[in-house]
UniProtKB/TrEMBL annotation:
Keywords: Pyridoxal phosphate. This is L-cysteine desulfhydrase 1 isoform X2. It comes from the Eukaryota. It comes from Oopsacas minuta. Residues 106-380 form the Aminotransferase class V domain. Pfam families: Aminotran_5. SUPFAM superfamilies: PLP-dependent transferases.
Amino acid sequence: MEVNKYQSTFNSTTVEELLSISDDKYTHPLLPFKAATFTKRVPFGREMKLAHFLIDPTWTFLNHGAFGAVLREVLDTSHKWQTYVETQPLRAIDRDLLPLLVSVIRKVAKFVSANPLNVVLVPNATTATTAVLKSFPFQPGDGILYLSIVYAAVLKQISEVAKLKSLVVYEREIQFPVTNNEYIIKLVETALKECPNLKLAVFDHISSGSAVLLPVKQLIDICHKSGVKVLIDGAHALGNIPINLTDMDPDFYTSNAHKWFCGAKGSAFLFVKKEFQSAIHPLVISHGYTRGFQAEFAWIGSKDYSALIALNTAIDFWEYYGADNIREYIHGLNRKAATMLVNTWGTQRIAAPELFRSMSVVIAPLHKICTSDDGEKLQDWLHHEKKIECSVKEARGILAVRISTHVHNDMEDYVKLADAVMEYCKQSTVT
């Protein structure tokens, strides 16, 4: 595409043109400053934590699934962009920003096997699911299907949209322990037959609280056969598991980059099938409105876009260390750690081992009826007394511990957790 060398490139009419250029003719723009590069490999585990993360080494950090943990190099790129913007704001925002955002979109789309024209950048998955639910062309009386393991914020979105648009909501409860995918598939198949006028189903790719990996491709297929569109909340997916959106074929899909991908806070993507792009709008209406899906999401006003620009460096990290290598380590460590906890505590996982990836949920060895307050007490005790950050939740009177594993963790972290929880239980401080 020819552009006047003196013209501002922040022209919303050029977004789709930049994304439409074939890979063999497209050249990624360079960052306007020297960004960190990865030139020396370090082993996964404690050395990785010290080399690439800012996590305080005196802490045992086992809750990566909450808000993630940014790479040092990614945060450095983010800060450098912020500084660069202020050296000449008009140059940075009006001329440099859009081509760089397009470059990031193209890279992210490639990582998840999607057409870049169907991908936009958003601050987080919550923003994306809200935009889809508020924009979806519902009619009064239409139905939305979700499972009981839906993320709490998404459930609030569904409830609010249902109230605003006079929709019918259908929940199907997941009973634990879950032993196989067939149980979830049959649950949804039954719901599709029983729930009238369904228009949209909302599923997690990996549930937040229970950490279960859902068979989303199969769920999408059976929903499509019933004429039901599907929104996948993949908040925990990017980096954690391979994503192939072309093969998966969702109507809408979102994932955070600040969790398992180790991006900066405020980075995520939203995928929308072309047939719905004219209907889906961002929550903030700005200059790109009515000028196309990409244009509307590219600019949502003056804000800090540094987290999105820094995805360049996050992608470099994944390419340098190898996505398959990273996943092999964190998934293997998770299986080993969860098995050790089960054996040490004499309990069990809440689902079959094959349904977990880099998070697992193991029942704590508290042989009494517990409340949510008990869960908070244990989590607080681990935090304040042992400097262990780990999620503890209560469900039906049972406390369960959700562990996260990433490249900055090793088995020593989980041995500390196992011993600490046993100590807590022996003290019988839960009332």
